[in-house]
């Protein structure tokens, strides 16, 4: 079934539902703003593209999606892929790859491919998620420590060597701001889990930089002023050679968007005791990525952490996600200059914590006690993700996982234990 959940929920919509969605959508927007900026920066893109993605992608994922409470936008899982595509093909290449990925997702929704998540071994997803977390965490060390290093390579080993050579440039002010932001985020999450503590913690860290005139980079000093409006939609430059060149990247983006959105929907179902429509979700992801590409944004998908925040804040229907997108748009139009004061170490601290949460350390004991085949598959995917390439990791992991299933002659059924990332 590909009918959007919005049409179903509006049949019994009430004023009380709207007020609940309004509060939840506004709350999750305050969480999404600093995350979207940080994800865009870590991806090697202009910070404004993160906000464009949250607005456009978030709007269409809620408008057309198959989950009552899904929140869409840029996510940490895409950082590695986006960074690599931009480095190799430029931002225009990323836009075209995202556009193509959107088309692939729409095709997947049309042919009811939503159930194919059952074929992806959980060990593979856990392995490349932990690997992505490691890559994201190490990519933030430069700003977290305030190091001065030019042309930091993307490869993990080479990156660590360059950062180690730059250890004498450690900026204690940057480290203090990053550490203070990290501690404040953790405290606010524990003391007031429904409160949008992310934006408060990042704002406090950035305010300290301004008050004490600390020698710390900010979004404005590094990237300039953010725009105060959405860009005019434009089609990416298309040629047959470019399509062939970018097709592998488009497949990876579509795969990640599909898997993460369906994972997020499964988590939401568990939290609200609901049932999402996977094929409607894939179709929505496709439209959202096409629209995000037209507005010069990043790949979009369902965001597990923001979806959980929406539920805890009282979100009841897709209207909350639409409100979330509109609130971010209002902030962009009315308060974009304020984003220029956000401190880079504060945003780095936010992403370091995001990377830690992505790796789900509370589940490591469970992974260690899994069957030997699952442990080896997880480790193989993790190592390939970190040291080789995400595309290779996914291809090898899924292939070996399916071969193991066929060898065991099991019925292919979902073995998911929905993660809480």
TrEMBL record:
The chain crosses the membrane at residues 21-42, 48-64, 93-111, 123-141, 170-188, 195-214, 246-268, 326-356, 376-404. It is a multi-pass membrane protein. It holds the Pfam family Sulfate_transp. InterPro entries: SLC26A/SulP_dom (IPR011547), SLC26A/SulP_fam (IPR001902). It comes from the Bacteria. Keywords: Membrane, Transmembrane, Transmembrane helix. Residues 18-362 form the SLC26A/SulP transporter domain. It is found in: Membrane. PANTHER family: SULFATE TRANSPORTER (PTHR11814). This is SulP family inorganic anion transporter.
């Amino acid at each position: 079934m590909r009918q959007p959940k919005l049409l179903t929920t509006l049949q019994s919509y009430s004023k009380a539902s709207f007020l609940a969605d309004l509060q939840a959508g506004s709350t999750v927007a305050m969480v999404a703003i600093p995350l979207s900026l940080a994800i865009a920066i870590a991806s090697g893109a202009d910070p404004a593209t993160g906000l464009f993605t949250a607005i456009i992608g978030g709007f269409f994922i809620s408008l057309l999606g198959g989950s009552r409470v899904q929140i869409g936008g840029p996510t940490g899982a895409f950082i590695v892929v986006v960074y690599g595509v931009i480095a190799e093909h430029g931002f225009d290449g990323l836009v075209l790859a995202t556009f193509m990925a959107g088309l692939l997702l729409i095709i997947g929704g049309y042919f009811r491919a939503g159930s194919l998540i059952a074929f992806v071994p959980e060990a593979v997803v856990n392995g490349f998620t932990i690997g992505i977390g490691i890559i994201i965490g190490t990519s933030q060390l430069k700003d977290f420590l305030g190091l001065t290093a030019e042309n930091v390579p993307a490869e993990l080993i080479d990156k660590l060597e360059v950062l180690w050579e730059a250890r004498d440039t450690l900026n204690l002010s940057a480290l203090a701001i990053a550490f203070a932001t990290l501690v404040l985020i953790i405290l606010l999450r524990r003391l007031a889990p429904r409160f949008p503590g992310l934006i408060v913690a990042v704002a406090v860290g950035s305010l300290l930089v301004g008050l004490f005139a600390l020698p710390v980079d900010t979004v404005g000093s590094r990237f300039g002023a953010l725009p105060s409006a959405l860009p005019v939609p434009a089609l990416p430059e298309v040629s047959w050679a470019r399509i062939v060149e970018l097709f592998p990247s488009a497949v990876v983006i579509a795969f990640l968007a599909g898997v993460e959105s369906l994972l997020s929907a499964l988590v939401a179902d568990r939290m609200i005791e609901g049932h999402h429509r996977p094929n409607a979700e894939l179709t929505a992801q496709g439209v959202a990525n096409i629209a995000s590409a037209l507005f010069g944004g990043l790949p979009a998908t369902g965001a597990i952490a923001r979806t959980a925040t929406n539920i805890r804040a009282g979100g009841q229907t897709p209207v909350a996600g639409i409100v979330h997108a509109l609130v971010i748009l209002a902030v962009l139009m009315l308060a974009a200059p304020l984003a220029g004061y956000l401190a880079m170490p504060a945003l780095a601290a936010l992403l370091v914590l995001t990377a830690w949460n992505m790796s789900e350390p509370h589940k490591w004991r469970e992974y260690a006690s899994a069957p030997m085949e699952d442990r080896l598959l997880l480790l193989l995917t993790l190592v390939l993700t970190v040291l080789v390439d995400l595309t290779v990791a996914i291809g090898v992991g899924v292939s070996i996982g399916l071969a193991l299933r066929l060898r065991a002659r099991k019925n292919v059924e979902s073995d998911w234990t929905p993660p809480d990332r």
